[in-house]
Design a protein that fits this description.
Radius of gyration: 16 Å
Strand content: 25-35%
Structural class: alpha+beta
Helix content: 10-25%
Strand order of the largest sheet: 2-3-4-1-7-10-9-8-6-5
Number of strands: 10
Largest sheet: 10 strands, antiparallel
Number of helices: 4
Length: about 220
């Protein structure tokens, strides 16, 4: 396996959701990241561990994970309105993130804004090269932005995804994220992807880890 450089999250490392989706080969799995996924580096999966050539453990993959909760759907127009207030437009810890970075012209362009209840929503125009790993990436940041603050950056630590079906290229979908609980440096979030007709396509639960100040995340 190889994570091409364009699929970065923080500078120099892979976007957590995309990397986890690549490691999971699109299956229903839980992936725990043990280090920032390296870019353009040969990786291998052996005995449910993703390793570099020197044996460093990048991630652990546990097949068959249950993802029981979905974030309720909203309409596309409401998601568009929420995205207009995306906090990452004014203060983004990783502005070149493949998923939610406003400085990317070749990223997914997912900009989750918060609703009144603290949950997030974003519209998403599905790219032509959509894959299971793309969906894992899309499910990543909308959950993170339910907890990320200007002075409280987080990175993905663990994510489990249930993918029912891929969206079609060009479809206008809606992504939803919600904070479930936060304790210490850890935050549990849920995310859900909806088709244009409101049908659920995929859902995720994830644990995000706060980075100590003054470091930043995305």
């Amino acid at each position: 396996m190889l994570i091409p450089a364009r699929f970065n999250g923080p500078p120099g490392s892979g976007n957590g959701g995309y990397s986890a989706g690549l490691f999971a080969h699109g299956g229903t799995c839980e992936v725990t990241l043990r280090m920032p996924p390296p870019l353009d580096t040969p990786l291998s999966l052996l005995d449910c561990q993703v390793r570099t050539e020197d044996g460093s453990v990048v991630a652990e993959v546990a097949p068959g994970a249950e993802v029981e909760t979905a974030v309720p759907p909203i309409g596309y127009a409401e998601a568009v309105e929420a995205a207009e207030a995306y906090p990452g437009f004014t203060a983004h810890p990783f502005p070149t993130c493949y998923v939610c970075g406003p400085d990317r012209s070749d990223g997914l362009g997912i900009f989750p804004g918060r609703l009144a209840d603290g949950s997030t929503a974003a519209p998403w125009s599905v790219p032509p090269d959509v894959s299971p790993a793309t969906v894992w990436a899309a499910l990543d940041c909308p959950g993170g932005w339910a907890v990320i603050g200007a002075d409280r950056p987080y990175v993905l630590g663990r994510i489990a995804v249930r993918l029912d079906r891929l969206p079609a290229p060009g479809e206008r979908c809606v992504l939803r994220g919600a904070l479930v609980a936060a304790e210490g440096r850890k935050a549990l979030v849920h995310t859900t992807l909806y088709a244009p007709d409101g049908a659920e396509l995929a859902r995720a639960r994830a644990t995000w880890i706060a980075l100590p100040a003054p470091h930043t995340t995305g």
